Amino acid sequence: MKQHSQTMPKAVEDCHELLAWIIPKLDQFPRHRRYTLGERIENGLLLVLENLIQAAYQKSQATYLQTANLQLDVVRHLWRLSHTLQSITHQSYGQGAERLAGLGRQIGGWRKQKEANTPESAA
């Protein structure tokens, strides 16, 4: 696995770690939220991961990174809603919000790096 992480961008690894951390938290949601809000958060992050992996293997990465960033924003709002509805503790909310923000910075940095390396941006 270590060799694989050397070939993948940091955002992919961060998203994987976020999923591994957040899924047990989602499993603890109250039953009436677990299969609606919890499932939407999990599926949203899985879509982020899929788009990041696709971006890692494509020459034209902008669309995948933009989609991942947009989906991550949706997940951030759902995470905040889960806190508002008291489905998670204040501490878990804070930790999750930090991790989501960190992943967002990774995606944003990746996008900026790719934009700076495109021939159109030099003109």
What would you say this structure looks like, in words?
The chain is mainly α and 123 residues long. The chain has 6 helices and no strands. The N and C termini lie far apart (40 Å).
Radius of gyration: 16 Å
Secondary-structure element order, as H and E?
HHHHHH
How much of the sequence lies in strands comes to under 5%
Low-confidence stretches: 1-5
Give the overall silhouette: elongated
Q: How many angstroms does the end-to-end distance come to?
A: 40 Å
What is the structure about, briefly put?
The chain is built from 6 helices and no strands. The chain is mainly alpha-helical and 123 residues long.
Protein traits:
mainly alpha, 6 helices, disordered N terminus
What's the SSE blueprint?
Elements: H1 2-7, H2 10-27, H3 31-56, H4 62-84, H5 90-116, H6 119-122
Helix pairs in contact: 2-3, 2-5, 3-4, 4-5
